[in-house]
Q: What sequence folds into this?
């Protein structure tokens, strides 16, 4: 069995994509194994990531059997499988495979720690706030915006799961001061943060302007931890067009220290709610 602690983000994504392709085809694992003339456990092992090297021929045979006609998608999966042992990578295949690398990891995490400097974390965004962000990024097609909002809402379903991850969001006051969309939409977003916190779905704390200089001034990041002790945490650094996964132990330790330092600077949950309420009052006056 493959050591889960050695599975990189690429490795996990390849396995998840193989499972997604099979499920989309409507075939079960035993049908696939019989068609490929494999041991009946092999398909499950591939989809759980219990492999060291994945043959290009196997990936292409599976894609053909699943009826995947998009050659660019298959080529991207093959390229990712070749580099599956490499830690730390830019999510450059998202245009072909979709932005599932981060979201699939987020859905399987047991703990999520966010620092957001200029925006509310996506998992905690209201639809109106998210739509204003999309339109601000020059996305004008209504159908595309609807699709993105549906994807965002689907992602947020983990907040209502019985096994939802522990979520701790540290949000810089600068993100809350910035009015995204109409003032009424921003007020709705701020009230949503308070509601999420008070209902215990996430721990929401504000890093106030009075905190001054701090170690996360250069940007936002997320630390994802997983249920198994064998699975190492991952740091995700978001950017306008790509995302960077960090997986080396020293990188994880560095960002964990940064987050711990931020925890020393934030307002308490109750004081955070009071500050947010004051910002809401300014918007509705």
A:
């Amino acid at each position: 069995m493959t050591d889960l602690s050695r599975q990189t983000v690429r490795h996990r994504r390849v396995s998840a994509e193989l499972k997604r392709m099979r499920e989309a085809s409507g075939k079960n694992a035993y049908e696939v194994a019989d068609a490929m003339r494999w041991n009946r456990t092999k398909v499950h092992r591939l989809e759980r990531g219990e492999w060291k090297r994945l043959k290009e021929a196997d990936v292409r045979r599976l894609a053909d059997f699943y009826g995947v006609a998009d050659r660019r998608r298959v080529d991207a999966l093959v390229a990712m499988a070749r580099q599956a042992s490499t830690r730390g990578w830019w999510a450059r295949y998202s245009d072909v495979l979709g932005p599932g690398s981060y979201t699939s990891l987020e859905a399987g995490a047991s703990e999520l720690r966010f620092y957001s400097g200029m925006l509310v974390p996506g998992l905690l965004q209201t639809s109106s706030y998210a739509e204003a962000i999309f339109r601000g990024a020059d996305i004008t097609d209504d159908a595309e915006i609807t699709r993105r909002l549906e994807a965002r809402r689907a992602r947020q379903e983990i907040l209502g799961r019985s096994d939802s991850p522990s979520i701790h969001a540290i949000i810089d006051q600068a993100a809350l001061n910035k009015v995204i969309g109409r003032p009424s939409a921003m007020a709705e977003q701020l009230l949503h943060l308070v509601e999420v916190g008070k209902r215990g779905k996430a721990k929401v704390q504000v890093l106030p302007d009075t905190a001054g200089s701090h170690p996360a001034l250069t940007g936002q990041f997320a630390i994802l931890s997983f249920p198994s002790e064998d699975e190492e945490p991952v740091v995700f650094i978001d950017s306008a067009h790509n995302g960077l996964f960090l997986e080396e132990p020293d990188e994880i330790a560095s960002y964990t220290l940064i987050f711990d330092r931020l925890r020393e600077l934030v307002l308490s949950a109750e004081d955070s709610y009071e500050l947010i309420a004051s910002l809401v009052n300014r918007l509705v006056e």
